[in-house]
C-alpha cells in the first residue's frame, strides 16, 4: 500500500505484491518531481521565500499566536537571517 496526498486530498492505494507497490511508488515520485500532482500551481507562480515568509507565515501563523511578543525577543533574529539567505529563492527551489 502506498499513501500520498494529491490536491490536498489523502489518497491510499493497495497493490497485490510488494514489487508492484514499489514500482507504483517510484512512478509517483517521478510524477511529483515533474510537478504533476498538484503541489505547485499550474502556472508555476511559486512565491519567493521572502514573500511567503512575510505575507503568509508571519501574518497567519506568528502574529496571531498569543506568544508573539516572546517570538519578537527570541526568534525574530532567526527569521530575519533566513529571509536574508533565502529571500529571493522560489520555495520550489529550496530543498
Give a description of the structure.
With 95 residues, this protein is mainly alpha-helical. It contains 4 helices and 2 strands. It has helices at residues 18-33, 49-62, 68-74, 76-86, and strands at residues 2-6, 9-13. A hairpin with a 2-residue loop joins strand 1 and strand 2. The longest helix has 16 residues, at 18-33. It is elongated and about 55 Å long.
Compressed to H and E, one letter per element, the order equals EEHHHH
Tally of separate helices: 4
- Look at the helices and sheets and give the structural class: mainly alpha
- What's the helical proportion of residues? 40-55%
Roughly how many Å apart are the termini?
27 Å
Large-scale geometry: elongated
Count of beta strands: 2
Q: What portion of residues belong to β-strands?
A: 5-15%
Main sheet, how many strands, which sense, barrel? 2 strands, antiparallel
Strand order of the largest sheet: 1-2
Radius of gyration: 18 Å
- Spans of at least 5 consecutive residues whose pLDDT stays below 50 are none
Q: Please, what is the average pLDDT?
A: 80
Summarize it:
With 95 residues, this protein is mainly alpha-helical. The chain has helices at residues 18-33, 49-62, 68-74, 76-86; strands spanning 2-6, 9-13. The chain is built from four helices and two strands; from the N terminus they run ββαααα.
